[in-house]
Every structure is written in structure tokens, then in C-alpha cells.
Recover the amino acids of this structure.
């Protein structure tokens, strides 16, 4: 999820980097699987913050279009790496659960937190109608593309239905990826003014950096991005390999780990950054654009990418989600779309979203 500067959040999470060597050493020594899982799980927290910060910095250097593509690839590095590893091992359900969980975390927990942070002790605040309407509509289209395969399963009976749904998923994924390119062109090209946060201030910051420091900073940023991205893949691999044993030892279901724990860890640094930026009536419109952009990155880029990746390696990854996941996604997007449609909000709207996420978390816990 691309966000505004993460400096304060980065400082807070730096101390968690100690879990990176601990997690790797524990995995290599084949220590208790719960210990390996916890260490690598906690190591992902600062690594995701580093990746997000580095990808945002590269966006400033490389321009809007290329920067947007970098944010799409690395902005959800934890979800992508976890999904790729899960699909590679044939655990399609786990990969799908991580993706659905990431959308729910963004759309309910973080968005709700932003609305509470921005509107607490205030009367009524208003959204940027042009931006929220466009993003809300695109979000609904994304949800329809993800939900339709489940509708096919529910309404048709055919001997070859699985192959039909697989073909449909791959075709739909191609359309969603094309739609994502169109969204990038809308956000970064024709209507980028809707998504800019204090452009004059940002330009002053860029001018203050100085021309002489650009190339060294760029090289350092690329190295940080690649190193943190590789570390996330390693930690995700060690974590996923111990999930079955950890689930059995702790009585925490794999579904709860995939849908709740992993997305919260991945989105925590960025979420805290946008919630802090929204505090006291801050630029909540920018926060909303960041959050919904992250949702669209998952729905229009990450999930279709995993379907295509599964096609390449011979794994039948589809857009057919479990019925419970499908219903949860549908109702969550319906609620959020209604909130955005009103174009005004109070802290009560945010409280409702956070409360709904808590209810869903309990539902996944008991599954």
C-alpha cells in the first residue's frame, strides 16, 4: 500500500528487525515451529514498512507511471510473496484467504481507523466526491469480477464446470489486469490531481533534497527495496512451512492466520501512517485514496497475477472463493460503498467499519 512518509512508523518498527536473524536462525536450526513462526511473523512487520517506504521514494525519482508500477509490485509485497509461495505449494485456499484478508483489513480496519482519527471531536466532515465516487465504482467492479465464479458454481450444474470456471477465471484475470492499467492511467495520468496530497509542499521537499544527493539516494533505496523484498520472501517461506504445525500446536486455524494475522502484519505500518496523517481532520481524502488504491492493487493486480502465475506453473488457481469468503467480501464492499456514497462521515461511520471487522475476525476465529 503506497502511503505518505512513514518516518515515524519506520522508527517505531526498527526494533522489530532483531527478529529477522532470529527467525532465520531458528528455521535453519529447525527449532520449535511455533517459535520459528513467531520470529518470522514479527520480522515481516519492519520489512513491509521498509519496502513501502523505499517504493514510495523510488516513485519520487522515477516518475508517476513507473513509480505506480513499482508500488503495485512492492506495495503489497507480503501478500504477493505469501500468495506466490502458497500457489507454488498447491495451497490455493491459503493464497485466496490472504488476498481476501488483505482487502478486509484495508477496507474495514484501516479505513475505519482513518475515519475515527479524522472526525473524532468534530461535527460532520466531507469526502472528495469526484475521487471517492470513481474509486468506489471501480471497487464494486473489482468485487463483481471476484464474485462471479462463485455465482457460476451456485447456479450451473455441469460435468465440466471446474474447467469452465478455470477458463473463466483466467479470462477475467486478463480483463482485471487491463482494467488495472486503465486505473493507473486514470490515477497517474489524466486525473492525477485528484490523488495529489499538498503538491506544492511535496515539490518544496523535493527541491530541498538537492540534485547532488539524488543518485546516491536512488542506489541506496533500490538496494533497500531489493534486500527487504528478498527478506520478506525468505521469512514468508519459513513462516508458511511451519503454519500447519503452528496451527495444530496453538489451535489457531490456518484460515484465521491467513485471513487476519498475515494481512494485519503486512498493513500495520502503512495503516498506522495513514491513520496518523488523518488525525484531527487531516487529509482523509488522501488516506482514502491510498486505502482504496491498495484494495485495487490486490483485486485488480495481485489476485489476477496469481491466477496467471498458477496457469504458467500448472496450478489451477481460480477466482472461485469459498462461499463464506465471497459473502464477507460482498457485504464489506457494499457497506463501504454506502459510506463513500454519502460523501460525509463522522467517527460513528469509522466505528461501524472497525466493529464489522471485529465481528468478521471472530467469525474466522471460530471456523
Amino acid at each position: 500500500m503506497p502511503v505518505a512518509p512513514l518516518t515515524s512508523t519506520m522508527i517505531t518498527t526498527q526494533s522489530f528487525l532483531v527478529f529477522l536473524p532470529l527467525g532465520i536462525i531458528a528455521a535453519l536450526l529447525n527449532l520449535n515451529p511455533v517459535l520459528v513462526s513467531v520470529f518470522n511473523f514479527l520480522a515481516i512487520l519492519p520489512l513491509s514498512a521498509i519496502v513501502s517506504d523505499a517504493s514510495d521514494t523510488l516513485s519520487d525519482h522515477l516518475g508517476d507511471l513507473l513509480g505506480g508500477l513499482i508500488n503495485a509490485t512492492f506495495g503489497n509485497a507480503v501478500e504477493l510473496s505469501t500468495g506466490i509461495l502458497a500457489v507454488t505449494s498447491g495451497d490455493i485456499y491459503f493464497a485466496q484467504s490472504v488476498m481476501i484478508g488483505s482487502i478486509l483489513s484495508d477496507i474495514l480496519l484501516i479505513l475505519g481507523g482513518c475515519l475515527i482519527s479524522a472526525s473524532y471531536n468534530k461535527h460532520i466532515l466531507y469526502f472528495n466526491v469526484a475521487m471517492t465516487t470513481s474509486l468506489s465504482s471501480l471497487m464494486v467492479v473489482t468485487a463483481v469480477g471476484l464474485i462471479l465464479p462463485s455465482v457460476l458454481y451456485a447456479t450451473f450444474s455441469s460435468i465440466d464446470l471446474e474447467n469452465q470456471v478455470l477458463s473463466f477465471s483466467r479470462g477475467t484475470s486478463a480483463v482485471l489486469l487491463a482494467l488495472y492499467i486503465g486505473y493507473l492511467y486514470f490515477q497517474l495520468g489524466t486525473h492525477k490531481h485528484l490523488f495529489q496530497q499538498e503538491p506544492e509542499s511535496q515539490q518544496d521537499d523535493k527541491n530541498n533534497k538537492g540534485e547532488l544527493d539524488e543518485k546516491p539516494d536512488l542506489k541506496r533505496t533500490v538496494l533497500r527495496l531489493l534486500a527487504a523484498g528478498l527478506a520478506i520472501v525468505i521469512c514468508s517461506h519459513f513462516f508458511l512451512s511451519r503454519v500447519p504445525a503452528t496451527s495444530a500446536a496453538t489451535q489457531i486455524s490456518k484460515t484465521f492466520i491467513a485471513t487476519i494475522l498475515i494481512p494485519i502484519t503486512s498493513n500495520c505500518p502503512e495503516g498506522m501512517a495513514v491513520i496518523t496523517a488523518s488525525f484531527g481532520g487531516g487529509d482523509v481524502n488522501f488516506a482514502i485514496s491510498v486505502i482504496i488504491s491498495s484494495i485495487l492493487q490486490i483485486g485488480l493486480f495481485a489476485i489476477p497475477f496469481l491466477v496467471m502465475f498458477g496457469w504458467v506453473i500448472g496450478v489451477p488457481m481460480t477466482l472461485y472463493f469459498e462461499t463464506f469468503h465471497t459473502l464477507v467480501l460482498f457485504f464489506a464492499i457494499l457497506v463501504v460503498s454506502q459510506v463513500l456514497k454519502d460523501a460525509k462521515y463522522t467517527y460513528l461511520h469509522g466505528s461501524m467499519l472497525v466493529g464489522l471487522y471485529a465481528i468478521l475476525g471472530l467469525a474466522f476465529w471460530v471456523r
Summary: The longest strand covers residues 125-126.
